[in-house]
């Protein structure tokens, strides 16, 4: 059987995927580039050659994650002429797609946690602001509605990270109470 050689962009995507898995598992500070290389099946110098530094690789992961969230929002099934509540509900259903890709919300949380690093912090603040603005643009949400949507989304992101929400959820009474309340809310926040 003949092996086909990967293109540079395919190899870069493979390393980025491995980095997302590694950063999701152990965060920015604890993740080593040699672990990312092992997961990707490449050498550690190759990882550095592709992305420069661990910080630049982490930023590439954050860009991927934030871009995915923005795309999920843009792909939401918002009916033409939908009012703000209906549009937010559609965005919330779309966000479930992002949460199902468990490593992505974990990297987002690690990005927020690593925001004391000036470069990472600047990037996280800019991208988080873009996502916040996109919610308003797509739904017509005012500040209060957009803030509630974001707050609920972050709550669900944290609950997904703790494995008390999502398909692999550990059922705990307090988590079930929150999730039930979110599902039954008459004015959707997410």
UniProtKB/TrEMBL annotation:
Keyword Membrane appears in the UniProt entry: no
DNA-binding region(s), chain positions: 32-51
PANTHER family to which the protein is assigned, alphabetical: HTH-TYPE TRANSCRIPTIONAL DUAL REGULATOR CECR, HTH-TYPE TRANSCRIPTIONAL REGULATOR RUTR
Gene3D superfamilies xref list: Tetracycline Repressor, domain 2
Top-rank taxon: Bacteria
Record keywords, A-Z: DNA-binding
Domain HTH tetR-type: 9-69
Protein name in the entry: TetR family transcriptional regulator
Keyword Mitochondrion part of the UniProt annotation: no
InterPro entries xrefs: Homeodomain-like_sf, HTH-type_TetR-like_transc_reg, HTH_TetR
One protein family per Pfam: TetR_N
Molecular function in Gene Ontology: DNA-binding transcription factor activity; transcription cis-regulatory region binding
């Amino acid at each position: 059987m003949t092996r086909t050689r990967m293109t540079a962009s395919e190899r870069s995507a493979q390393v980025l995927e491995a980095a997302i898995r590694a950063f999701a598992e152990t965060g920015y500070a604890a993740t080593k580039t040699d672990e990312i290389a092992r997961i990707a099946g490449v050498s550690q110098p190759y990882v550095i050659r592709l992305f420069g530094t661990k910080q630049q690789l982490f930023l590439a992961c954050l860009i991927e994650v934030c871009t995915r969230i923005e795309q999920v929002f843009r792909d939401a099934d918002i009916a033409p002429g939908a009012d703000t509540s209906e549009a937010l509900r559609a965005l919330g259903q779309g966000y479930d797609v992002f949460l199902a890709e468990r490593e992505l919300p974990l990297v987002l949380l690690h990005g927020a946690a690593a925001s004391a690093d000036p470069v990472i912090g600047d990037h996280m603040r800019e991208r988080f602001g873009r996502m916040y603005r996109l919610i308003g643009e797509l739904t017509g949400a005012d500040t209060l509605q957009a803030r509630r949507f974001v707050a609920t989304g972050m709550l669900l992101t944290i609950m997904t990270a703790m494995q008390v929400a999502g398909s692999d959820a550990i059922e705990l009474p307090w988590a079930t109470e929150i999730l039930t309340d979110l599902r039954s809310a008459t004015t959707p926040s997410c």
